[in-house]
Amino acid sequence: MRSIRIWFTKKDTARYISHLDLTRCLIRAFRRTDIPLWYTEGFNPHPYLVFGMPLPLGVEGLREVLDIRLNDDDYPDERVLSELNRATVPGIEFLEVSAPKEQPLAIVLGKYSVIIPDVEAPEEFSNKCKTAVAEGNITIEKKTKKGGTKEINVCEHIRHFHSSFDKNGVILSFVLPAGNDFTVNPVLFCNKLFEIIGESDITNHKIIRHILMAKDEKEFR
Predict the structure, then answer these.
(1) What's the CA gap between 186 and 120, in Å, rounded?
(2) What is the pLDDT of residue 59?
(3) Around Cβ 136, how many Cβ atoms within 10 Å?
(4) Which option is the CATH number for 106-213: 3.40.50, 3.20.20, 3.30.70, 2.60.120?
(5) What is the DSSP secondary structure assignment for residue 118, as one 8-state letter?
(6) At the topology level of CATH, where does 2-100 sit?
(7) From CA 95, how far away is CA 85, in angstroms rounded?
(8) Using the 8-state DSSP alphabet, how is residue 56 labeled?
(9) Could you say which of 15, 144, 170, 182 would form a disulfide bridge with 116 (CB–CB 3.0 to 4.6 Å)?
């Protein structure tokens, strides 16, 4: 048995696939291949699939993580990629296979960008975003593991916020917590930010997660 890590995209229409449906989608994709996927043992065997931090619905991922185990140690990594890309659905592309270097629990951060096209006054919009974050009070409601909610100030957790603009619109970039113990939803952050700057009618923006990172801000591998 051999453990491998698969890197894939979740873009375009696939960004609206929930995490549960993504799991089902990939199980069906594996069944359309000859990949010797390892199944758990016991009364109800199921494919061994371990994901990195799930994406919020509507967020694109450029380098998502899936760990699997192969029954055949000699099955080539290149064939895993070719088989999965033959069986995949639009928006999900398999990029790379590697040996896991870190456990998924090492994931604590995500690097994001937000593309906001067709802004009437992009410089003003960009500056208002910078000011709102600098003022340090962007509060959202976060669900707790016990089923309740609590308020958190995103400004206490956001890192490396940057806002730029050109004639086509505004681009925001930042790092947010994205770990098993604590995560901040970038969708909720953007919605609250736009509300604060008086642009709550913005709906055509795109949120992208570029990479997952460990606590030292190095890319998770």
Answers:
(1) 23
(2) 98
(3) 11
(4) 3.30.70
(5) S
(6) Alpha-Beta Plaits (3.30.70)
(7) 9
(8) P
(9) 170
Could you list the mean pLDDT of each consecutive 10-residue stretch along the chain, which spans 221 residues?
A: 97 97 97 95 90 96 98 96 97 97 96 96 96 97 84 97 94 97 96 96 95 96 95
Q: Tell me, rounded to whole angstroms, the distance of Cα 50 from its chain centroid.
A: 14
Query: How many CB atoms are closer than 10 A to CB 221?
Result: 15
Judge whether 64 and 8 are in contact, CB under 8 Å: yes
CA–CA gap between residue 218 and residue 221 (Å, rounded): 9
Q: Scanning the structure block, which residue is given the tokens 């061994």?
A: 48
Distance CA 98, CA 5 (A): 5
Query: Would you call 44 helix, strand, or coil by DSSP?
Result: coil
- For residue 131, what are its two tokens? 């000011």
- Closest Cα partner for 170 from 111, 113, 117? 117
Tokens of 127: 């500056």
Question: Under a CB-based contact definition with an 8 Å cutoff, are residues 64 and 7 in contact?
Answer: yes
Nearest CA among 121, 115, 113, 118 for reference residue 197? 121
Pinpoint the residues of the chain covered by CATH 3.30.70.580.
2-100
3-state SS class at 38: coil
Provide the β-strand partners of residue 117.
Answer: 169
